[in-house]
Amino acid sequence: MSNETATLSQRMGAFVAGLSMETLPAEIVEKARICLLNGYGIGLGSHSTPYAGVARRAALGFDGERPDGATLLGDGRKAAVAGAALANSALFHGRAQEDTCGAAHMGAIMIPLLTALLEAKRLPVERLIPALVAGYEAGGLLEKAYSPITTPRGLRSSPLYGTIAAAAASARLMGLDAATTAVAIDCAASFTGGILQSFSEGTDEWRYQVGVAGSTGLTAALLAANGAVSAPHSLEGRFGFARAFAGSDCDVDDLAGRLGREWATRRVTFKPYPVCAFNQTPVIAALALKEKAAGRDFARISVRMNPLETGYAGMDSTGPFHTVSGTLMSIPFCIALTLVRGEPTLKMMTTYDDGDVNALMSRVELVPDEGVARLCCTIEAELADGGRLGVEQVMTTENFNYDRATVSRLVRRIGAEQDVPAKAYDLIEDFAFGPHGTGVDQVLAAFALCPRPA
Fold this sequence. Notes:
By secondary structure, this protein is α+β, with helices and mostly antiparallel strands. Helices cover 53% and strands 7% of the residues. The protein has helices spanning 8-17, 26-45, 51-63, 81-92, 107-121, 128-150, 157-174, 178-191, 197-201, 205-225, 241-246, 252-258, 280-293, 307-310, 324-327, 331-341, 346-349, 355-361, 404-417, 422-433, 441-448, and strands spanning 70-71, 78-79, 100-101, 268-269, 298-305, 364-368, 377-383, 388-393. Strand 7 and strand 8 form a beta hairpin. Helix 5 crosses helix 10. 56% of the residues are buried. The mean pLDDT is 96.
């Protein structure tokens, strides 16, 4: 089939099936390894969060423990692969500090899923990096094209594009051919979705959306592998993905032409703080402002950010807060907390009755401003002594595109806060950057070192 007649999913399927350690650029391989280190590292540092426990009980509720299944990381019991993906994604998403591809957190979807598949099915571990890249590229291609439209509609990018990423990643790990991979992508396009309302109400559904996206993507790949027939125009058709979710046309040649040229893996970024991706820059700006203020008190704060960010669900909330799902999304809370207490930690983010923070938060004005680029922020402060200070924080994705050493320091710092032995980080670092000779047993050994939940 020529490119002139192939559908978008068919061209994506051919691209995904052709990925290997030999065909991938060295910089993309390195970036994928860094993503592994970050994913596992944040997962280790999230062992004390409650969401994995909820998801573990749900996973075991399907069909109980499965000795032939995949390990519930940080727990030790085994469940079916889909259940392990659900539970382990909730663990990796526990700090809200996972990687970000545009507006989607695909690492928290794919890394737990691929790890579970490798363990339970004993698939070739040398496919892990190509499979991970396959997911970032398939999901990232669509996320970049459509998330500016789908996000304001109330659709969350992580499950919407991550389900397709998970299908592509699963297909590559399973060694499916190009045609079957295209069917997996088509099926995923029919199954995908996910809304943002939980952010507005400070509830927990978003914690589990990533695991559901992973298990749904796996379902799509397994259906394809077992003979499912799918709509080949699932992405660009009259009633397909682009029109249904984005109300948009789909330029097949344009999108397919980006594959292997505009690598989505390259634009995956990382989070220094346990807050929403849109709150990383405000926290950095607030730290700079706090240093400028040198102990002087703040009377009033004005924050200017891009309307796409200020309009995201939960970003303008001022509480009262009862869950970290509310605080990590709130721009006023994150700025007030940083100005009062300094660098946010997970413990600070779960302290809801800090009178000083709440008092300052009520005096933070959030101003949507088209003139402020995404990922940037301007904070202007009126001080209690009548003085004025300001910080203009200009950031791009490159500021969060960390190298291996920076991610290693980041995850080890978090591990130290959470009493995770340094040996656990040695193990995952050796796995991420080594020859993978021991399979995923090294990863399982690392998580076995975490303090066990009560």
